[in-house]
Amino acid sequence: MHPLLNKYFAGTITDSEKAVLFRELEDNTALKEEFARSQNALALSGISNKENDQQWAAAKMDELLHTSRKRSIRRAYLPILKYAAVAILISSLWLLFQNPAKEPDNPSYTYIEVPKGQTIHIILPDGTETWLSSRTRLNIPTLFNQKERTVELDGEALFHVTRNEEMPFIVKTQQYNIQVTGTHFNVFAYAKSPLFRTDLIEGSVFIFNEDNAGKTVSLQPEETVYLKDGQLIKTTSTFSRSRYIMNGIYYFENTSFQDIADCLELWYNVKIHLQKEQIASHVFSGKFRQSDHIELILQAIKETGKFNYKLINDFEIEIY
């Protein structure tokens, strides 16, 4: 990598060096492509700067300085290792896309897992964009076959699918599959949860179960399908969380605490025990960063005066 690029993404570049780098970017196409790939890699690894987060980053740095030296060194190397792995992944996908080989008999897969409290944005070999929420896993074939573009999802993802009438795009989840040709939609389908929901923003989708392929549900823009008592329920709904998902923000609007708790359990890998049934029906609205600690979210909701909470351990929370 160009030495100034190393400094730029490490955050050690000076203003004068940055000016030199940007001048070179204007005239050097190869350097510009390398810069773009590096930005994508950083976004994918979840270590790029968030918009307007300078104060947040400074506060986190102060916290880091108070930890032990050994722990600090270990944490300092983790982003580098993540960056290297992600760079290899993106390069591999790019090469496969640019140089399609013969369709393999047993295609291999690339597995992407999102850490707790992060959002990952990736671009698939066909140009489809997807934003993966906290603790989501996406399995991507190293090469799409000639009939369809299939990925496997465990979690929540927002998709902007590149249109291709001859090769439908299929998202496989544990409960249902979603098929499109070119569409903007969101899927909530964690394997560890009975919850399933698909919100269509643009285009059209077909939801089906491979074990019962004769039954499908089709959606038009501003329609939603969700699972209730074993049945898919279709309703009209304007999905308004796209920009929040893209920016790693949890957004709740007039949502019951039970639904919020179900999501928090999945996103933070915790178990929430409700000691009073009436708490479950209380309705809340709010926005939180995925990088926020779950206690910060609970503290904010607690200020409404409707409940208290207690951290039992790292994986259990009591609401009373």
Describe what you observe in this structure.
With about 325 residues, this protein is of the alpha+beta class. The protein has three domains: about 5-90, no CATH class; about 105-240, Jelly Rolls (Sandwich), CATH 2.60.120; about 250-320, Phage tail protein beta-alpha-beta fold (3-Layer(bab) Sandwich). The chain is about 35% helix and about 30% strand. The chain contains eight helices and 18 strands. It has helices at about 5-10, 15-25, 30-45, 55-65, 70-100, 240-245, 255-270, 295-300; strands at about 110-115, 120-125, 130, 135-140, 150-160, 170, 175-180, 185-190, 195-200, 205-210, 210-220, 225-230, 230-235, 250-255, 270-275, 285-290, 310-315, 315-320. Strands 1, 2, 3, 4, 5, 6, 7, 8, 9, 10, 11, 12 and 13 form a 13-stranded mixed beta sheet that branches. It has a three-stranded mixed beta sheet with strand order 15-18-17, covered by helices on one side. β12 and β13 (about 230-235) form a beta hairpin. The chain is globular and about 65 Å long.
- CATH class group of the largest domain: Mainly Beta
The low-confidence parts are 43-102
Order of helices and strands: HHHHHEEEEEEEEEEEEEHEHEEHEE
Q: Provide the number of structural domains.
A: 3
* Global outline: globular
Q: Compute the separation of the termini in Å.
A: 54 Å
Individual helix count: 8
Number of strands: 18
Helix content: 25-40%
**Can you tell me the CATH topology of the largest domain?**
Jelly Rolls
Q: Mean pLDDT, nearest integer?
A: 79
CATH architecture of the largest domain: Sandwich
Which class of secondary structure composition applies to the elements? alpha+beta
Q: How much β-strand is present in the residues?
A: 25-35%
Structural Rg: 22 Å
Main beta-sheet strand count, sense and barrel state = 13 strands, mixed
